[in-house]
Structures are given as C-alpha cells and as structure tokens.
C-alpha cells in the first residue's frame, strides 16, 4: 500500500514540485509586511501590497512546472528578476526561486543549457551586488559571497545530472546484458537440441536397420521355418516400438536448418567406467558407485545418462578448485534411474564466467525422456547435481 502510494505521488510531478515550492511561499507570506525600496531612490517607500503579491506569484508559480519545462521556467523567473532589478524593487524571499530554477536546468538539461543558466546566475549575482549593496559594504566581498552561493547550487545540479546519467547507463547495461544472456541461453539450447538430434540419429538408424534385416529374414523363412519367422516378427515388433519412441523424442528436439555434422557410435552406461578413469587421470579423485538392479536401457537414455555425468564432472574440474574430490552414484530403481554427482569444492563461491550452459543442456536432455535435473550448492560445502530419468515400459522390455 505504501509503495503504491509512493509511486502515485512520484508520478504527479507538478504536485511534487508545488510541495517543494510551498515552504518558500510560506516564508514569502510571513515576510510580506516590511519590504522597502533601497537606494538609488534615496527614500524608503513601502512596496505596495499588490506589487508584492504579483512579484511573489511571478517568481514562484512557474516552479510548479520546473521539471516539465526547465529552460522556459528559468527564463521566465530570470526575466521577472531582471524587471524587478530594473525598477529597483527590493529583493524578496521568493527571489530564491531563480536559484531553484537554475538548479533544475543544470540537473535535467544538457550541459550547454546548464552552463548558460549558471552564467546567467553569476551575472545576476553581480547585478544584485551593484544594485542592492548597502553603502559602506565591500562590493567585491559581497559579489564573491553571492557568486559562491550561485556556483555551489549550480555544481550540485551538474553533479545530480552526472549521477543520473551514470545510473541510466548502468540500467541500460544491465538490461542489455540480460538480453544478451537470454539470447545466449536460447542459442545454447538450440545448439544442444541439434546435437541431441544428431546423437540419437545412430540409435534410430540402428533400430530401423534391425527391422529391415529381421523383415528380410522372416520373408525367406515364413514358408520353411515358421517358428523362426515368428521370432523375427516379434523382434520387429519390439524393435519398432522402441524406434517409434525414440523418433517421437527426436521430433521434439529437431530444429529446422540443422547443418548435420559427423555421426559416430555414441557412448552409454557401460562407458561410464572409461569416463571415470579418464577423469581420474585428469587429477580428480573420484568414487563411482552403482546400486540397484541394472536395467537394459534404450541407447538414447544411456547416452543422456553419460552426458549428464560427463558435464557434471567437467564442471567440477573447471570450478571445484584445488583439492576437490567427487562422487558419482548410479541408482537403478523400479520406476526411474537416478544419477547423483557430488563434490566438495567451492560450490556457490566458484567464479562464473557467464559463458557456460551446461546445466541448461543437462535439463534439456533430461526433459526429452520426461526427467528432471536439480543442481546447486550442498550443505557443508561443495556442489550436487541430481538427475532423475523415468524408465519407461519400452525401456524395461528392451
């Protein structure tokens, strides 16, 4: 409620400016009765009431629109002050409005306008010194004092303008970096999906090749060896269902315009042992544990498990810091296979160069098979990655 009220208040610029001007208006009202005209007239004539009211209104009323039209408001107030000086009307508290208008120009307008307003303010200080200095006072000292006041207010306005420009540049940079980060993530996800599609190509191609070979065998054996033909047809059926499931997932990640690439046999769960030895050879102490009853998994799902472990261990090598060790646990459940990679490295304190998209790639891979990946710092230090991948019916019967 308070935040909404504050936002509404700040949106009413003229109302805010009137509130800031009101103390000066109050001072002008309280000081109204006793103003007199100074020399060079040589007599003391009380300022007529209507003159005083008109002068205060002309000096303060434009301040209500000072941030909407800062240069025009300053010009109006400066012109009123010049007319006041020309007719020898005594300085009133409302004359401080010219300094407020000068500050507004310096704080909200380009530097050339701020410099012009500051120069007019200094000239006005000199004119006021000549006209209103009491006989016997040091003109130079009075001018220096007034010019210093004008200069101080002008410098404050320039500082505020510079500060606002700096904050705007920071906001624009943050917005630009956020857009670039989102773009990089989208590019990385598209690249990762295209890579997944290429890797699954071999899996689907293998299953289709099996179907073709078994179909050819069944066509030759159907009249001479019925039992053998039956087994071939059963193989075709199970392989076809597995290939169909893989192709459905493949269509979900294919992107138009993929440039293809080279194809090679892809690793699976059995190659995790080789990966562990490779990581150990790179200098990372690593424990590898498998529990549960191993299930026969589709090649695509095996590839997903391998890539998730590979990416997580690569991140440990890059960001874990000196003396880090890791542990990989592969658990076969009835409904899902769960992969847990933990380390005792720097965790959240690790430096992020902003260029990696490993977690996005792991989540993208897992989502293809209806799984999910959770990652983050763990209690006591270090980092943990947990991937859970459902074992579908086609995988159980593979």
Straight-line distance between termini: 61 Å
Strand content: 5-15%
Mean of all residue-level pLDDT scores: 79
Portion of residues within helices = 55-70%
Tell me the number of helical segments per DSSP (H or I, 4 or more residues long): 12
In order across it, which strands form the biggest sheet? 1-2-3-5-4
Number of separate strands: 5
Domain module count: 3
Topology pattern, helix = H, strand = E: HHHHHHHHHEHEEHEEH
Low-confidence stretches: 35-45, 394-398
Give the CA-based shape: rod-shaped
What is the SS-derived class? Answer: alpha+beta
| Whole-angstrom Rg | 40 Å
- Biggest β-sheet: count, sense, barrel? 5 strands, mixed
Description:
By secondary structure, the chain is α+β, with helices and mostly antiparallel strands. The chain has 3 domains: 2-137, no CATH class; 185-253, Up-down Bundle (Single alpha-helices involved in coiled-coils or other helix-helix interfaces), CATH 1.20.5; 269-396, Heat Shock Protein 90, CATH 3.30.565. It is 62% helix and 9% strand. The protein is built from 12 helices and 5 strands. A 5-stranded mixed sheet has the order 1-2-3-5-4. Helix 4 runs parallel beside helix 6 (111-132) and helix 5 packs parallel to helix 7 (139-221). The radius of gyration is 40 Å and the shape is rod-shaped. The model is unreliable at 35-45 and 394-398 (pLDDT under 50). InterPro entries: DUF7134 (IPR055558), HATPase_C_sf (IPR036890), HATPase_dom (IPR003594), Sensor_HK_TwoCompSys (IPR050482), Sig_transdc_His_kin_sub3_dim/P (IPR011712). Keywords: ATP-binding, Coiled coil, Kinase, Membrane, Nucleotide-binding, Phosphoprotein, Transferase, Transmembrane, Transmembrane helix, Two-component regulatory system. This is histidine kinase.
């Amino acid at each position: 409620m308070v935040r909404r009220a504050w936002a509404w208040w700040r949106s009413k610029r003229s109302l805010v400016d009137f509130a800031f001007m009101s103390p000066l208006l109050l001072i002008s009202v309280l000081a109204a009765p006793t103003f007199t005209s100074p020399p060079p007239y040589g007599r003391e004539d009380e300022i007529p009431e209507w003159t005083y009211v008109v002068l205060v209104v002309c000096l303060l009323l434009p301040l209500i629109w000072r941030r909407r039209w800062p240069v025009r408001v300053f010009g109006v107030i400066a012109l009123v002050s010049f007319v006041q000086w020309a007719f020898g009307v005594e300085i009133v508290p409302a004359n401080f409005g010219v300094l407020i208008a000068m500050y507004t120009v310096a704080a909200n307008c380009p530097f050339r306008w701020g410099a012009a307003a500051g120069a007019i303010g200094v000239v006005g200080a000199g004119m006021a010194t000549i006209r209103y200095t009491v006989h016997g006072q040091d003109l130079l000292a009075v001018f220096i004092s007034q010019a210093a006041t004008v200069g101080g207010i002008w410098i404050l306005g320039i500082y505020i303008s510079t500060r606002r420009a700096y904050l705007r540049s920071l906001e624009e940079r943050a917005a630009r970096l956020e857009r670039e980060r989102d773009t990089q993530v989208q590019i990385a996800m598209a690249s990762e999906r295209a890579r997944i599609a290429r890797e699954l190509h071999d899996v689907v191609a293998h299953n289709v090749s099996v179907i073709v070979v078994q179909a050819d065998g069944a066509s030759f054996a159907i009249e001479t060896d019925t039992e053998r033909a039956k087994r071939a047809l059963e193989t075709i059926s199970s392989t076809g269902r597995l290939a169909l499931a893989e192709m459905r997932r493949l269509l979900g990640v294919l992107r138009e315009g993929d440039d293809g690439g080279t194809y090679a046999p892809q690793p699976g769960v059995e190659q995790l042992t080789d990966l562990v030895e490779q990581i150990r050879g790179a200098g990372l102490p690593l424990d590898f544990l498998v529990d549960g009853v191993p299930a026969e998994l589709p090649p695509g799902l095996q590839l997903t498990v391998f890539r998730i472990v590979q990416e997580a261990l690569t991140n440990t090598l890059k960001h874990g810091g000196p003396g880090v060790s890791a542990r990989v646990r592969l658990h076969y459940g009835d409904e899902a296979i769960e992969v847990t990679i933990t380390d005792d490295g720097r965790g959240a304190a690790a430096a992020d160069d902003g260029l990696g998209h490993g977690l996005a790639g792991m989540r993208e891979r897992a989502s293809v098979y209806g799984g999910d990946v959770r990652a983050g710092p763990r209690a006591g230090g270090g980092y943990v990655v947990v991937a859970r991948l459902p074992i579908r019916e086609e995988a159980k019967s593979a």
